[in-house]
Write the C-alpha cells for this entry.
Amino acid sequence: DGGITQSPKYLFRKEGQNVTLSCEQNLNHDAMYWYRQDPGQGLRLIYYSQIVNDFQKGDIAEGYSVSREKKESFPLTVTSAQKNPTAFYLCASSRGYARKWAEQFFGPGTRLTVL
Amino acid sequence: EDQVTQSPEALRLQEGESSSLNCSYTVSGLRGLFWYRQDPGKGPEFLFTLYSAGEEKEKERLKATLTKKESFLHITAPKPEDSATYLCAVQKPGNQGGKLIFGQGTELSVKP
C-alpha cells in the first residue's frame, strides 16, 4: 500500500533535548511538508521541500530543522531553541506544486509532549 | 493578506439533518481549493479539489461547490460516522512551492 508513515506516534521530550520526527513516503512524490497543529488553530507550515537536497522555511521555522537527502524521507528535528514544542506534528506529500499536482496527502501524525 | 475562514466553528446535527459548511477565502488568483476530513488524533484525509468557480465534486453524502469567494461542503442526510473536523485549504498563487493556507476547521457532530 502506498502512503506516508510517521514515527513515533507519541514522543516525550525533556526540556533542552533535541528530538527527530521521522516521515517516509512511498508515493513517489517530489514535494514534502511539515505542519504543526495546536488546539483551536489551523495547520501551520514549518518547512517544505520541492525536491531532494532542497528545502524552504515555512511560516514558523524557528527552532526546527530538516533535511531531504532522499526523495522518500523528510525528517524534522525539534531543537531546544523551540520554546513551545508540545503539539501534534503532521507530515504531508504531493506530486509537486504545479496547479494539478498540489493535492497534499497526510501521514498519521506524531504527538510531541515536553515534560 | 491571504486568508481562509471557515464557519461555523462547530456544528451539531441530528442524523438525517442536512446542512452546509462554509469556507471563504481572500486569495487572489486561486489555484486550487481543497477539502479534508480529520478524525481526532489522526492526520487529515483528502476529500476534494476544486479549481474554478462553478465546479462541483461529490462523494457519498458530501458535495463540494466553489464560487469566486467561497466554497461550501454540503452534507446530505448525515450519519454519526460523518462526525469529524472538516478542513478547507487554498493553494497560494504563484511559485510558492504548493503551499496551502488552511482554515481553522469546522467540527461536525452528528447525533443518532
